[in-house]
Amino acid sequence: MAALSSTSSLFFPSRLTVPNLSFQSNLNPLRLNHLSTTPSSPSPQSLTTTSISHSPITARYGGGGGNFPRSNSGDFRRKGGSNDNDPALNISSIRSENVRLIDEKQNMIGIVPKYDAIQRAEDAELDLVILSPEADPPVVRLMDYNKFKYEQQKKKRDQQKKSAAHRMDLKELKMGYNIDVHDYSVRLKAALKFLKAGDKVKVVVQLKGRESDFRNKAIELIRRFQSDIGELAVEESKSFRERSMTLVMVPNKVVPIQKPPESPKKNETTATEVSAPV
């Protein structure tokens, strides 16, 4: 009996596999990669989607964005200003519904609603500055606040320069009771120079040790110095103590300072250049 052998095989359909499925989402952009089906079927192309970017919405004067109206109850400051902590720009501190408005040319507009004044400042791109918060109603003005503060500071600096120009400094000159002729002349010229420049001059003669015996000579020296100064200065104070003689002189404004005579011009003839008669 011949051996009977048979081979049988069973067919199983192929299993659906999804290898290497990756999902990446960062909201912008969104990507889906490597999506595949059965090995026998062609793999579809990768799906890539990118969200559409929108420009950011910004509010020029603060508050919300978009087309929503801006609140009129907050502060009003022009864009780019650096006066965030200045109470003169804190419009929210005004509780009154109305304000007395002055325009940028310092013309009185009159009493207007507060929101109207804010709208005028926004339209003109100016600052709305509080001038008199305690008035009824408060007084506000349209202006360029940075420019206004710069002009005020400039005026203050100019006033300080003028006051410094009129300020009178005190120059002190010391001498001994037995000063020689040359040193005396040097101090006298210095005193005249200081007085002509508009400064005070204080002359001091100090006596040390046994020099107190020459007190009378020191007093005579002080009086001589004052006499040599002449009408260019007037005496402000004088003190003759035991060991210290002082004299303070101030410029005499009544006496004008004489300027040196100007040299004649070349095309002008002097009085001596007169032709003799022939």
From TrEMBL:
Locations of Polar residues compositional bias? 269-278
Q: What is its main location?
A: plastid
Please give the InterPro entries that the UniProt record associates with this protein: T_IF-3_C_sf (IPR036788), T_IF-3_N_sf (IPR036787), Translation_initiation_fac3_CS (IPR019813), Translation_initiation_fac_3 (IPR001288), Translation_initiation_fac_3_C (IPR019815), Translation_initiation_fac_3_N (IPR019814)
Alphabetically, which GO biological process terms does the record hold? ribosome disassembly
Where are the annotated segments for Disordered?
Answer: 34-90, 256-278
Skewed-composition ranges (Low complexity): 36-53
Which Pfam families does this UniProt record tie to the protein? Answer: IF3_C, IF3_N
How far does the signal peptide extend, from start to end residue? none
Give compartment(s): Plastid, Chloroplast
- Residue span(s) of domain Translation initiation factor 3 N-terminal: 93-159
Q: One GO MF term, please?
A: mRNA binding
Its Gene Ontology cellular component terms are: chloroplast
> Taking every annotated instance into account, which residue ranges of this chain make up the domain Translation initiation factor 3 C-terminal?
169-252
Recite the UniProt keywords alphabetically.
Chloroplast, Initiation factor, Plastid, Protein biosynthesis, Transit peptide
What does the subunit comment say?
Monomer.
Q: What does this protein do?
A: Chloroplast translation initiation factor that is essential for the coordination of leaf and chloroplast development. IF-3 binds to the 30S ribosomal subunit and shifts the equilibrium between 70S ribosomes and their 50S and 30S subunits in favor of the free subunits, thus enhancing the availability of 30S subunits on which protein synthesis initiation begins.
> Member of which family?
Belongs to the IF-3 family.
Q: What is this protein called?
A: Translation initiation factor IF-3
Q: Which organism does this record belong to?
A: Daucus carota subsp. sativus (Carrot)
